[in-house]
Amino acid sequence: MTDPAPTVVVPRPDDFDDIAELLGDAFHDPYDPESREAARGVFEPDRALLVRDAGTAVAHAAAFTRTLSVPGATVPAAHVTMVAVATTHRRRGLLRTLMHRQLRELHDAGREPVAVLWASEGRIYPRFGYGLAVQRLTLDCPATTELRLPEPTSAAGTLRLAAPAAVQPELARLYDRLRVERPGWSDRDERWWRYVLCDPPGARDGATARRALLYEGPDGLDGYALWRSRPEWQRTGPTGLVQVDEVVAADPDAYLAIWRTLLSVDLTRRLSYFRAAVDDPLLRLVNEPRQLGPQLMDALWVRLVDVPAALAARRYATAVDVVVEVTDPLLPENTGRWRLTGGPQGAACARTDDPAELACDVRCLGELYLGGAGLTALAAAGRVRELRPGTLAAAGPAFGWHRAPAPMDIF
């Protein structure tokens, strides 16, 4: 006997506490009261899908309404989040039901041509057409004694410490100024800044409250870092840890000054940073880059919901004119041949009957979308087929970008 099809409903605001309990159990990390209220503040019940069994929340998926920076532009993007299935209800197709319905609703609404998420496990979302678009570096390195940075090139700037909430408007102005230049960053309104800066004592794992380190240039704020420290001691002395959450800098002077400070905090001997970009300047500045202990990890996964709208929304590094044969078993409207034309100033994408020059699935387009994956690398992995010789070499540079995509928010 098979289980009946689940009833999927749009939750009400007062369903949030039940959803939070489900998420806490699924991720083995219950919300403390302050974190729960912060999450409630960004929850959009009308964009969520919920399954109950005998009144208990057993499966859930949601999306946040935000924009995403892409090469040369910003686009509305469904930030998929809060996805969980109860341990008692696994292997019943609930995740598949929620993901299929969510994608269908996103496509039919026509507002967001792409969806983006962080994956708890990399094997989960490719089957729904999500491709790994952004990778990150995790850094775990010695501080103070092992690493050296260049001396400052100028003395024009000054550093100061502040409570993050007290300087949130300044942080927001700098973040908004710079985020359009870096594919992979999401917009932050007031609700999101409150969420990002939420710092409940119960979630600090023995570390201090989060601090803001600000770099002031001649014309105002040019850089900041969000960080905390954790005291650790051995018989021979202090071995404290600096935990860096976020570094934003408008120029090399600000960047260097911030990192010189973070790597020389008194009574600390190690530093960790889990959201470094793969082209992070720190790799080129320290005297011994291998001491940074960089490890490559997945970050953002992207799904093209509306292929022509998504491909036309971004810019391309060089001129491109290519016909791509796309397959998308979940959203058949995306399946077919599409002619993409464009360059640094804009792009267009329309259905065509012309012969295809490349062929790939929609997941592959998600990997390419933010400029981080190479077209020829995907072809070498068998993910893209070249149907007209020479197309890879001609079109490949267009899909890249002058800055690697980078992760910022975990949502």
From TrEMBL:
GO terms for biological process: aminoglycoside antibiotic catabolic process. One of its GO terms (molecular function) is aminoglycoside N-acetyltransferase activity. Residues 6-152 form the N-acetyltransferase domain. Acetyl-CoA binds at V83, A84, V85, R91, R92, G93, L94, L95, R96, S120, E121. It comes from the Bacteria. The active site is at Y125, F411. Coiled coil: none annotated. Keywords: Acyltransferase, Transferase. InterPro entries: Acetyltransf_17, Acetyltransferase_Eis, Acyl_CoA_acyltransferase, Eis_dom, GNAT_dom, NAcTrfase_Eis, SCP2_sterol-bd_dom_sf. Transmembrane segments: none annotated. Belongs to the acetyltransferase Eis family. Homohexamer; trimer of dimers. This is Predicted acetyltransferase. It comes from Micromonospora coxensis. The lineage of its organism: Bacteria, Bacillati, Actinomycetota, Actinomycetes, Micromonosporales.
